[in-house]
Design brief:
Length: about 110
């Protein structure tokens, strides 16, 4: 049995023959390694939030590209569903500052 990690998009990707990453890329590993020396310092939170902001911006760009030029209706539907979640997460970390959710439900 193939594990999809509990992510709805993973099952769709698997059904379409799309391989999903199961580990950080070399660039992401480099970014994480740069964070390690900051652990326990005042700079850590801001640096981590900036990485999250950058990653969410990249994710939104990929989602928008799919929505604009994608041809598979199921993948476009998944991108459409993911977009507001990724956008809300980006708002929470923009500029390396934590902007906590003001709604009554926890962030997704």
């Amino acid at each position: 049995m193939i594990s999809t990690g509990g992510y709805p998009g993973a099952a769709l990707g698997y059904s379409k023959g799309i391989s999903l990453a199961n580990a950080p890329t070399a660039e992401q590993q480099k970014q994480l390694s740069a964070l390690k020396p900051l652990n326990g310092t005042a700079s850590y939170d801001s640096a981590w939030l900036k990485l999250q902001s950058s990653g969410h911006q990249q994710a939104l760009a990929l989602i928008d590209k799919e929505l604009k030029s994608g041809t598979d209706s199921q993948i476009q539907a998944a991108a459409q569903a993911a977009r507001p979640i990724v956008a809300s997460h980006l708002k929470m970390v923009e500029g390396g500052v934590c902007h906590s959710s003001t709604g009554s439900s926890p962030p997704q």
